[in-house]
Amino acid sequence: MNTQRYFLELSYYGAAYSGFQVQENANSVQEEVEKAIKVLQKKEVTLTGSSRTDTGVHALQNYFHFDYEGEINKHFLYKLNAILPRDIVLQKLSAVNGDAHCRFDVPTAIRTCRALEEAGNIDWFEEPVPPESFNALKQVREKVSAAISWGERGHTKWDFVPILENKLSDYIMPDVTWTGGITELKKIATMAEAYYIPITPHDASGPINIMAGAHVSLTVPNFYRLEHNVANVPWYDRCLDRPLDLRGEQLHLSQRPGLGVELDPAFLQGHRARGWPG
Length: 278
Fold this sequence. Notes:
Blueprint: E1 3-12, H1 29-41, E2 59-69, H2 76-83, E3 88-95, H3 106-119, E4 125-126, H4 134-143, E5 148-150, H5 161-165, E6 171-172, H6 176-179, H7 182-194, H8 207-217, H9 233-239, E7 245-247, E8 250-252, H10 265-270
Helix pairs in contact: 1-2, 3-4, 7-8
């Protein structure tokens, strides 16, 4: 039976916890979630995650990942939320796809990419190794044929300089939030233009992130694609004063001021995470 990796998205109100991940002689969010999974699935699961370890820190969005062999209960989130304390809410469970998501060491990344190459054409191999080591990325790049994409974990233009100067990526995918905003994303795109590298703005933060990336993309000649999660679009639309104007595979921008959309505060207030104040 194959082992599948999952990402678990959650929010929590941290007043009752000493931090996110497990700590010695202290209660944590991770410990509560692991206990709930054991009750539901009848087996122990070890979660992996990294975040604040001090008392009373809250989060609207955080993540664990875990490997699991076997069937996941089809009502996994619903039943776990019923078991968990009210100040922890699981939002989404996602099976990990072919995106490397920075989780491989060098030999594993090389083997995985070669297997994907043999299985069929792939557009790119995304973030094969953790972003802290450019040398690791260089080793992978030298041993595979697929195009490399890098950048969703890049912070500010300075992180992209060694990638561009050392020809370590065929595409870059900066995130408008994580890189430092619209102006910084524009600067990164302009830097990449000088190296003839296309950009694909990354999105993992919702409709405002998508729209900000889209507006920058319209201003640069090296725009390639705009990343978004199609499955999330109906939820994104409900958060806004008007839906995203998606026509097939194209996002159309309006002539309205700013980003062209506004968040709907009444909807957000009515759907805030359980146990979250405000």
